[in-house]
Amino acid sequence: MPPENPARGHDRFDDDDYPAYTMGRAAEMIGATPGFLRAVGEARLIKPLRSEGGHRRYSRYQLRVAARARELVDQGTPIEAACRIVILEDQLEDALRINEELRRPATGSEESSGS
């Protein structure tokens, strides 16, 4: 097998979706317990990838999502509701981004047509 291209390995550090963190490290980073990470996984907020040995691995994006759920739970929101809120917030953010992208070309074409 050829050696890994060092430049491509570096790309993983910049990839928000690369599953770089073990469960213990991920829990420590967001100030939660491994049980909390399992619970948000069971609630289908995040789905960690598995290493070849079957261990859960988390990405930076997943940690941000789990940290937001932890904030809500810390404020007294039940975990299932917190997960649903985070999912809806994520969907709203995507919809707003798409809306903005769709508006940009329409605005540009109206200005260029002279109307």
From TrEMBL:
InterPro entries: DNA-bd_dom_put_sf (IPR009061), MerR-type_HTH_dom (IPR000551). Residues 20-88 form the HTH merR-type domain. Signal peptide: none annotated. SUPFAM superfamilies: Putative DNA-binding domain. This is MerR family transcriptional regulator.
